[in-house]
């Protein structure tokens, strides 16, 4: 599993929204400048985040985006599943994958299944709030 720029940038954009004047609509132009990410690339990510209820947007003067829920309610796992699709470490564990004819005798399947569960559990335990700077700094770096 390799997290793409789409997933990493979505995390950075949402963390930026949570950090800068939560509750206010923030222009993506400002986020793009702070995060050093192309505005065009961010504009491709935002519809997925809006459609799935992570952010809400307003067009026109004074418009922008803001979090739809608190940063403590949004998990990294949720964000990455929206932007990456599957987080499975091997193709046979992806949702909707065809049954593997070798599964019954696969010696490595239990290991991959356990790793998949660990990845899901860990990413679902980290919230957007956990990524934000605190007085002593944060333990996560994105």
Explain what the structure shows.
The protein has 142 residues and is mainly alpha-helical. Helix 1 crosses helix 3 and helix 1 (5-19) crosses helix 4 (76-84). Strand 1 (55-58) and strand 2 form a beta hairpin. The mean pLDDT is 92. The chain has six helices and two strands, in the order H-H-H-E-E-H-H-H. Helix content is 46%, strand content 6%. Strands 1-2 form a two-stranded antiparallel ribbon. The radius of gyration is 17 Å and the shape is elongated. It has one domain: Arc Repressor Mutant, subunit A (Orthogonal Bundle), CATH 1.10.10. It has helices at residues 5-19, 28-35, 39-51, 76-84, 109-125, 128-131; strands spanning 55-58, 64-67.
Offer a concise description of the structure.
This protein is 46% helix and 6% strand. It is mainly alpha-helical.
Largest sheet geometry: 2 strands, antiparallel
Beta-strand content estimate: 5-15%
Helicity level: 40-55%
The number of distinct structural domains comes to 1
Name the helix and strand elements from N-terminus to C-terminus, one letter apiece: HHHEEHHH
CATH-assigned fold name: Arc Repressor Mutant, subunit A
CATH class, named: Mainly Alpha
Shape from CA axes?
elongated
Sheet with the most strands: spatial strand order: 1-2
What's the Cα radius of gyration?
17 Å
- SS content category: mainly alpha
Task: Indicate the mean pLDDT.
Answer: 92
Question: Can you say what the CATH homologous superfamily is?
Answer: Winged helix-like DNA-binding domain superfamily/Winged helix DNA-binding domain
What is the CA–CA distance across the termini?
17 Å
Strand elements, count: 2
Give the helix tally: 6
């Amino acid at each position: 599993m390799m997290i793409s720029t789409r997933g990493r940038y979505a995390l950075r954009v949402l963390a930026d929204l949570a950090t800068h004047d939560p509750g206010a609509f923030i222009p993506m132009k400002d986020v793009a400048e702070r995060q050093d990410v192309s505005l065009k690339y961010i504009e491709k990510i935002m519809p997925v985040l809006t459609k799935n209820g992570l952010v809400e947007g307003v067009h026109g003067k004074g418009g922008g985006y803001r979090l739809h829920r608190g940063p403590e309610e949004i998990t990294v796992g949720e964000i990455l599943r929206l932007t990456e699709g599957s987080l499975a470490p091997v193709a046979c564990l992806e949702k909707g994958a065809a049954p593997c004819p070798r599964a019954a005798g696969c010696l490595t399947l239990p290991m991959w299944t356990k790793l998949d569960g660990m990845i899901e559990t860990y990413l679902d335990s980290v919230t957007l709030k956990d990524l934000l700077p605190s007085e002593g700094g944060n333990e996560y770096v994105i």
